[in-house]
Amino acid sequence: MRLRVEFTTEPFDLDEAPAHAVVARQVIEAAELDVVDVGPFGNTGEGGADAVLTAVDALLRRSLSAGATRISLQVNVVGEDDR
């Protein structure tokens, strides 16, 4: 199964990326995902179910530890693995 995760972290700071946003970006970029899109108001990652779920676990744990007070995320099934 292939999954896509979309997420944002809060609180927002338009002047400078807060620590929790930087950590979230680092987690998603380092994950073993096939597609990653990082932006100022939303981020997405796509890949196999295990990779996405592992990334979501790390994202939640590390972003909350870095000061996030809210993390909004959505996970969608987008297809089957090519295996």
Brief summary of the model shown:
The protein is an alpha+beta fold. The chain has helices at residues 19-30, 49-65, and strands spanning 2-10, 35-38, 43-48, 70-79.
Describe this structure in words.
The protein is an alpha+beta fold and 83 residues long. Helices cover 35% and strands 35% of the residues. It is built from 2 helices and 4 strands. A 4-stranded antiparallel sheet has the order 2-3-1-4, with helices on one face. A hairpin with a 4-residue loop joins strand 2 and strand 3. The radius of gyration is 12 Å and the shape is elongated. The model has no long low-confidence stretch (mean pLDDT 93).
Task: Summarize the main sheet.
Answer: 4 strands, antiparallel
Uncertain spans, ≥5 residues at pLDDT below 50? Answer: none
Strand order of the largest sheet: 2-3-1-4
Mean pLDDT: 93
Can you write the helix and strand succession as a string?
EHEEHE
SS-based structural class? alpha+beta
